[in-house]
Design brief:
heterodimer, A: alpha/beta, Rossmann fold, 2 domains, 7-stranded mixed beta sheet, 5-stranded parallel beta sheet, 12 helices, B: mainly alpha, ABC transporter involved in vitamin B12 uptake, BtuC, two-stranded antiparallel sheet
């Protein structure tokens, strides 16, 4: 463990353990007064989704401090009540009931996982509470929920972003190494699109979630002699294995593997891997710089996509409340929320069919070089 | 299916099989000595590997010393489990289910403790040998060869220990017939502590050996326990050496199923084969040898 990864480790531990209690340092403050405007948030700080919920909570609290330091919402302070659903939809539902009926929040942010988002949607939809989920759109029922927005792309868009890169490097034969959870979902969206991109999937190899060895699957992908390899997983294992068997093809990984946790666990294999994602903290886009700087000052670590998504969600709801006032009611707040918004993560349009409206052009393509993120010049032009 | 792919699958199967074997041997040694099904066997691996990682990277210990300390940490955790919990529960004639519940609870506690103190990150150890061996286009890491050699060495050493040393023979006697062993002057309780020490040592050794290939994190333990348990049952739960055969069988069946059928049906094929083996040999592949003392 290098000194920097140890610093990151302790930073992450501090975020997980302390951020609910520790006040992040905020910019010079303006005065707020009156009762706080309460917004609920449900994230998975523990359990299987902890890799998402911890960063999301950090993003939410940062946004709250910044908004309040700049005078709150029309002079009133914003209070984001953050709850942990322990990655469990039942817990998410009971937390949502508490936030909506007891705490009387005007809007709900989160949850981190699709199953919880669907469960919580039952409460927010029935009570006309605006909800901004930290997921991409999930099952069909979500389309009926008129006051729901998503700040992360649907899996179809993640699949499209992979294919756009394949087109860019003129790879027509693709080998896919994927896990049985996240990987299955993205693959299902990928398959119908391959013809349009003139791509053939020459090998599709699956491994179970939490697999400690995928060498044989990786060898089968390599033996199919693809032009490029897609790895769609939430694990470092397939990346290590594909390098161990000395596959030399370009590797393109779906956004699920983009966190520092996974990249650290890849070890020397974290090299020459391209990831379509949204934020490279080491080299942010001009409009992302202020957020990255503030995050680094506050938490002494570098943010990735989930921190930025949650930060955007808090700012989006604050902007909507500012526009119509905190007592306007759910329907007016919804209407105010459903407008185009230029966030740190992406340009959203919540009136779009997929309830997020992120264009594929919002993706940036990062490249891991010697375990470090770099930003490639490639963007999809539309 | 090419020869190179088959060879690659065999390399992967043997490497994984040795790891399953080391975890399974520890689990089986503990079961043989105490009738406790140890659901925290994989946690010995995590504690052993994590201790080695922290001593090597944070405290700057030399690699061999960190490995020795990691192995010792696993062994002491095993002995501690016996002294702090199992001994008292056994005195009150606790049932096998109670022991199972105890070890499941401790496994979850240790996993949560690792998450709290070390975090979510996965950690790798340096390989024992850099580079790879390429045979007919199939690639195997030098470290995997070390792992296989040390795994086989540990298996042979365990066999010699149980058959040739007075402590090993006493442990075997205490496990086969505790009352009989006690009448010949063997301290049965102490032998049980040794059994847990040995189980912890084998688990930690497996964890340390696999960490240059598989990053150790707080979630690894359960996965190893399940594979080790399958290996131990397959080989005959009362025979630690059977777990070595069981582990290798499991590893090879898993990886050959991927190239023979499809990675989508890997588990279906692997577990079908295992079920057939269990139907044909209900005491495990080396079950009867286990009754003779393993």
């Amino acid at each position: 463990m290098s000194l920097s990864s140890f610093a990151r480790l302790t930073g992450a531990a501090a975020l997980v353990g302390l951020s609910a209690f520790a006040a992040p340092t905020a910019p010079a403050s303006a005065q707020t007064s009156g009762d706080p405007i309460k917004v609920g948030a449900i994230v998975s700080v523990t359990g299987a989704g902890a890799g998402l919920g911890g960063p999301e909570r950090a993003g939410l609290l940062l946004a709250e401090k910044e908004i309040n330091a700049k005078g709150g919402i029309n002079g009133r302070p914003l209070k984001i009540i953050v709850e942990d659903d322990a990655s469990n939809p039942d817990t998410a539902l009971s937390k949502a009931n508490d936030l909506v009926f007891n705490q009387k929040v005007v809007a709900l942010l989160g949850p981190s996982l699709t199953a919880s988002t669907v469960a919580v949607g039952g409460v927010t939809h029935a009570n006309k509470i605006p909800q901004i989920a930290f997921t991409g759109i999930g099952p069909a029922v979500e389309r009926e929920r008129k006051c729901l927005a998503h700040v992360l792309p649907p899996q179809k868009l993640n699949a499209q972003a992979l294919l756009e890169y394949a087109k860019n490097i003129k790879a027509t034969k693709i080998g896919v190494l994927h896990d049985a959870g996240y990987g299955n979902v993205v693959l299902a969206e990928l398959k119908p699109m391959v013809d349009k991109y003139g791509v053939k999937l020459v090998a599709i190899e699956k491994f179970e979630i939490g697999a400690t060895d995928t060498t044989t699957q990786a060898a089968k992908v390599k033996a199919s002699q693809p032009d490029a390899i897609f790895i769609i997983a939430t694990s470092a294992t397939p990346f290590r294995n594909i390098k161990q068997i000395q596959a030399t093809q370009p590797i393109v990984a779906a956004i699920g593997s983009s966190s520092y946790d996974y990249v650290n666990a890849m070890g020397p294999a974290a090299d020459n891997i391209v990831i379509p994602e949204f934020l490279v903290g080491e080299d942010p886009l001009p409009h992302q710089k202020a957020f990255v700087e503030l995050f680094k000052q506050t938490y002494n670590s570098t943010p990735k996509n989930y921190e930025a998504a949650a930060y955007d969600a808090a700012n989006i709801i604050a902007a909507a409340i500012k526009k119509v006032g905190p007592d306007a009611g759910g329907e007016k707040l919804c209407a105010a929320m459903k407008t185009p918004y230029s966030g740190v993560l992406a340009n959203y349009d919540f009136s779009a069919d997929d309830m997020t409206g992120i264009p594929v052009g919002s993706y940036i393509y990062s490249k891991l070089v010697g375990g470090k993120y770099t930003r490639t010049p490639f963007r999809v032009t539309q | 299916m090419t020869l190179s792919l088959v060879l690659q699958a065999i390399f992967a199967g043997v490497t994984n099989g040795i790891v399953y074997a080391l975890v399974g041997m520890g689990l089986s040694a503990i079961f043989k000595g105490s009738r406790v099904i140890n659901a925290m066997q994989g946690e010995f691996s995590v504690v052993g590997a994590m201790t080695t990682v922290l001593l090597l990277t944070k405290a700057g210990w030399p690699y061999p010393a960190a490995i020795a300390a990691g192995a010792l940490a696993g062994a002491l955790l095993g002995a501690g489990l016996e002294l702090a919990f199992v001994r008292h529960m056994a005195r009150k004639n606790a049932s096998e289910d109670s022991f199972l519940l105890l070890t499941i609870g401790l496994a979850l506690t240790l996993s949560a403790g690792t998450l709290f103190f070390v975090g979510r990150d996965g950690y790798l150890l340096p390989p024992f040998g850099e580079g790879v061996l390429i045979v007919l286009d199939a690639v195997i890491q030098f470290h995997a060869l070390w792992l296989i050699a040390i795994g086989i060495g540990a298996t042979l050493a365990l066999r010699a220990f149980f058959h040739r040393t007075s402590v090993g023979l006493s442990m075997m006697a205490a496990s086969i017939d505790a009352d009989g062993a006690a009448t010949t002057g063997i301290n049965v309780a102490r032998m049980r502590t040794y059994t847990f020490f040995l189980g912890g040592l084998l688990g930690a050794l497996g964890g340390i050996l696999v960490t240059p290939l598989v990053a150790v994190d707080y979630q690894l333990g359960l996965n190893l326990t399940l594979k080790g348990f399958a290996a131990a049952v397959l080989g005959g739960l009362t025979n630690p050496l059977g777990a070595a055969v069981g582990g290798l069988t499991l590893g090879l069946v898993e990886s050959l199923a991927i190239i023979g059928i499809s990675s989508s049906y890997k588990d279906v094929v692997a577990f079908t084969v295992l079920i057939v083996i269990m139907i044909l040999m209900p005491n495990g592949i080396l079950g009867r040898a286990g009754r003779r003392g393993g």
